[in-house]
Here is the input.
Amino acid sequence: MPDITRRHALGAAAALAVTVGAPLTATAADGHDGHDGHEEHGGHDGHQDLQPFDEVYRGRRIQGHATEGGGHHHGAGYAVFVDGAELHVMRNADGSWISVVSHYSPVPTPRAAARAAVDELQGARLVPFN
Here is the structure.
């Protein structure tokens, strides 16, 4: 029987890892992550089932509602306001939301994006983004 070199052993281990890992990756890519497919956002553009909100959070009035068409950017179809000033929001491909204020902290809903913006602003006024 020939001697097994370190190079051959590592190659065999890598091949085994790829063979075992491929079905797991394919399952994750197919979307079999335990969800039944009925997520909060519903339809194709994801705004039909989002509930409007109007509340006071940490002394700031936050509002959000679906809009008809238009919109400025990636959040087209849903508008969020902090004390009457529009907070630009964007829906990511994975369904999470970010805002111009908390761009690197994705949250599950526009309401959570508004709350994160209020937290980040720490009492400062939201300046309109034109």
